Every structure is written in C-alpha cells, then in structure tokens.
Amino acid sequence: MKRVILIFLCSIGLTANAQVKTLTLKEALTYALQNKADAKKSKLQVENSEYQIQEIRSRALPQISGNASLTYNPILQTNVIDGGSFGQPGTTIQATFGQKWTSGAGISLTQALFDQSVFTGLRAAKSTREFYQINDQLTEEQVIERVANNYYGVYVQRERLILLDSNYVNTTKVRNIVQGQFDNGLAKKIDLDRIIVKMSNIDTERQQIKNQITLQENALKFYMGMPIEAQIEIPKEEFEVVPAALTEVPNVENRTEYLLLKKQEELLVFNKKATEALYYPTLNLVAGYNYIGQGPEMPLFAKPRDGVYWSDYSAIGLNLHVPIFTGFGTRAKVRQADVEIRSLQEDIKDTKLSLDLDYRNAMAQIENNLITINNQRENMRLAKEILSDTKNNYLQGLASLTDLLDAENESLEAQNNFTRAVLNYKIAEITLIKSKGELKTLIK
C-alpha cells in the first residue's frame, strides 16, 4: 500500500513539473528583468553607487577618532646636561627623565576647511549616481534584446519541426500508396525503397531539429534566468508580421549607449579636476583632548599615594599644507587624465556613427525582409499547388515518383524559406526598435 502511495505522489510531482507555461514575449522579457543575474547585478550597482556617494561626502564631515595607550619603560633614558643650569658650572649632570609606566587616552578631531579634491568629489557625486542609473538601463536593454532574439529563434525551430512532422505524415501516405502498388505489381521495388529512404532522412532531420529546439530553449531560459527544466510554449500570434512604422531618423544622442559615454566623459572631467586639486593647498582644523597618567606603577588603577599622577591636556590648531614641488608627478597625472578624456571623446564620435549606421541598416533590412516575406509567401502558395497537382497526376499515372518527391521537397523548402524570412524580419525589427532607443516599449 505504501508503495502505491509513493508512486502516486511521484506521479503528481512529475505532472506538476511537466506543466507547460504559455509565454508571450512581454512575459518573457518581464521575467528576465526580474530574474536574470545581469539585471539584478546592475540594480546592485545602483545601490552601491549610493554608498560610494556617502563615502565621498564623509570626507567633508568631521573625522573623529579615539586613542589609548599603555607603555612600560624597563630602562629609562639618561640625558646628559650642563651643570651650570643647576648652579654647578663646569660639571656635567646625568639625569633620568620619565616614569616606568605611562598611560594615556584621548580623542582627536580633524575638519577639512579647504580641500579642492573634496569639493570636486562632492560635485561628481550626482554624476556618479546618474552613471550607474544609465548603466542599469543599458543592461536592461541588453537583456531585452538577447531574450527577444532567442524567443523568436525558439519559435522558428518549432515551426520547422511542425513542417517536418507534416512532411513525414504526407510521405507516409505516399509510402502506403506505393506499397499497395508494389504489392499489386504496379510499382517497382526501387520506388518503394526511395520512399523509405526519404522517410528515414526526414526522421533524421526531425531528430536534429528537436535537438536544436532543446538547445535554443535552454539558451532562452538561461537569458531569462528561468530554470532549465521549465516547460514553455510560445503563442503563434507572437510571430505575426506587422510592418514597422517608418519614422524620422532618431536622435542618437538620446540612445542609452551614447548617454552612458557622455556621463563617463563627465566623470573623467571631474577626475581630472580632482587631480589638478593636488596643486592647491589644503587647510584642516585639528583639535584634541587627552588624559595621561605616569608613575612607577601601572597607572590604570593607581593613585597619587602610589606615586602615580593623572593630568589632562588639549590643543586646537590649523594645519596648512602647501605643495611646492612634486617632481612633476602631479603634472604627469593631470596629463594622463586629459589623455583618457580625449580617448573617450574619440569613442563617443565612433559610437555616434555606429548608432546611426545601426538605424540605417535596420531600416534597409526591414524593407528587404518585407519584400522577401511577400515573395516567399507567394512561392509557398505555388509550391503547395504544384505538390497537390503532382500528387493527383501521380495517382493517375501522369507523373513519376521523382516528380512527386521533387514537388514535396520544393514545398518544404518554400515553407522553410518563408519561416526564415519571418525570423529575419523579427530580428531586424528588434534591431530597429533598439536603434530608436525604444526596447523598453516591448514590456509595456
């Protein structure tokens, strides 16, 4: 009885795991943005940028620290002094200063009053936050693009399998007809063998396509951050071709890739200014309060009757640091920072050209693929008609088996060409949407 229950429970678990989830493109993209590691990490970078900003701001706030010490001097230093200071001219006195034990505790404060690098860092804090926010947006767009392309790839592979399954069924029907003809002496054995070989080839191709589907689905699930064992289904309407709206050339300066580089340039300018700040003097307010105990015994718990005395002291002052000559080190650092800016500016120019090229190419691919789709749709229709006519002629003895097999191959090829044309269009559509900076519209 226990064994029956166990088998029943296992079957329930397998059934639950085998449930197929119908996944639209929007749902796939939303899932990826919530679960893919890249998207999560970019969010963490945005969060981390706030802590970096706090670190920069802390340099403008008072720095307070405490200190404590306990020192034992087994051998006190002996100093040689002139006896004339003590009414004994012409003599030398050896005097020992200090105590065997010294203990102290205190608190110190440092406040930057003028530090050009701190001021520059505070001005750069806002740009730092914006840089990571733009980078997060770029990461999301990259996730959307990868998932969308693989999503359509899965659908195409499944469509190819459907076509092969249909072709296998039709070829099986022809095999049965030829088998009947052969049994009645109306067909040659070579004709039957050719049909059997073709069925074997179709079956082999089906297995290859099934393997490709598994690989493509696994890639899609990986880019989505979805468990590999999950079962998904893609609605057919997600693959409908709707001619893309032709718009004016988009402003590439609004693209995330361009904005990120411009923000990076802004940060490099601040970095150069922070390096130039090394030329400027710095002024700090310093203050401290300390308490010290000295005596022949450990001062921590001793009292004056033990020869241990405690006293306090404090100091307040200004520290001014004026750089005069650094061996041209600062100048070299400033020039390095300037080279980084100029190098990035070249990247910005190249990226701007590349983004414009992406849009032009995407538009050309959209137009060409629409023409190809229309042509392949017509070819597919004609190939089906030819196959139907050839099959009827074959049954009436007006066409050879070779003609029938060729017609089947042409029909299958026409359908595959149409499917590939639609895939190329959908991928070009994603590229066009990306070139317009509108990938986020796919999840709205």
UniProtKB/TrEMBL annotation:
Pfam families: OEP. Keywords: Cell outer membrane, Coiled coil, Membrane, Signal, Transmembrane, Transmembrane beta strand, Transport. GO terms for molecular function: efflux transmembrane transporter activity; porin activity. Residues 1-18 form the signal peptide. Residues 334-393 form a coiled coil. It comes from the Bacteria. It is found in: Cell outer membrane. The keyword Coiled coil applies. Belongs to the outer membrane factor (OMF) (TC 1.B.17) family. This is Outer membrane protein TolC. It comes from Flavobacterium saccharophilum.
